[in-house]
């Protein structure tokens, strides 16, 4: 399934079949900017800007409204997807869950978060069940169309519902995973090809540097 990544302010990146990227790694790194004052420079795979991420208000599995402050209480891996996703989302979220387990083996704690970009079908209960099936610590979030759109825009993600069957439609969406720290905010991102071991190593670097 074709995935498309688009940022209104900085152009568009087309994601090829299976979630691989048409852009080179260097181009993607430059997309995210950078800073000479980066205290986490030794931990990063590439440079990132500080204007990704931020406040959000969404709904958890119990139907309660939560904010980013409620959710991001430790190093957190944030991923935007949807429960009906037939291929990319299950793979990516399972990878994130495995990375969290690898960190736990090192005595480090992190939280995986799954934010649905398909509020039309993804009820709080459905998102909660999806997350719980992947990892006991995974937090599933959804919300109204406006809440989901605001969270997506905050992280500069892209999603678009495809035309087709009203019950079994697909949703094009970006596939980055974002590392967010409670006090520092967004600090790094992970592409689809990053392995659980590589993700755990990089997250551990940030934890040790904090």
Radius of gyration: 16 Å
Number of helices: 6
N-C termini distance: 38 Å
* CATH-assigned homologous superfamily: Glutaredoxin
Strand tally is 11
| Proportion of residues in β-strands | 15-25%
- Structural class by sheet pairing and helices: alpha+beta
State the major sheet. 5 strands, mixed
Provide the CATH top-level class.
Alpha Beta
CATH topology: Glutaredoxin
Number of domains: 1
Q: Which stretches of 5+ consecutive residues score pLDDT under 50?
A: 1-36
Strand order of the largest sheet: 7-6-5-10-11
Named at the architecture level, the CATH assignment is: 3-Layer(aba) Sandwich
Topology pattern, helix = H, strand = E: EEHEEHEHEHEHEEEEH
Q: How helix-rich are the residues, as a percent range? A: 25-40%
What's the mean pLDDT score?
85
């Amino acid at each position: 399934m074709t995935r498309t990544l688009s940022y209104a302010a900085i152009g568009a990146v087309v994601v090829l079949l299976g979630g691989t990227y048409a852009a080179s790694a260097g181009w993607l790194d430059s997309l995210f900017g950078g800073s000479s004052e980066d205290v986490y420079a030794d931990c990063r795979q590439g440079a990132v800007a500080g204007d990704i991420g931020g406040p959000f208000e969404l709904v958890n599995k119990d139907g309660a409204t939560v904010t980013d402050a409620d959710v991001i209480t430790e190093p957190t891996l944030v991923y935007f997807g949807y429960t009906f996703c037939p291929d990319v989302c299950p793979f990516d979220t399972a990878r994130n869950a495995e990375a969290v387990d690898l960190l736990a083996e090192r005595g480090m704690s992190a939280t995986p978060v799954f934010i649905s970009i398909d509020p039309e079908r993804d009820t709080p209960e459905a998102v909660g069940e999806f997350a719980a099936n992947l990892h006991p610590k995974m937090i599933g979030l959804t919300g109204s169309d406006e809440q989901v759109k605001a969270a997506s825009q905050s992280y500069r993600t892209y999603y678009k519902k495809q035309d087709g069957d009203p019950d079994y439609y697909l949703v094009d969406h970006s596939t980055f995973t974002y590392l967010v720290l409670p006090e520092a905010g967004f600090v790094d991102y992970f592409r689809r090809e990053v392995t659980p071991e590589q993700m755990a190593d990089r997250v551990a670097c940030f934890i040790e540097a904090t």
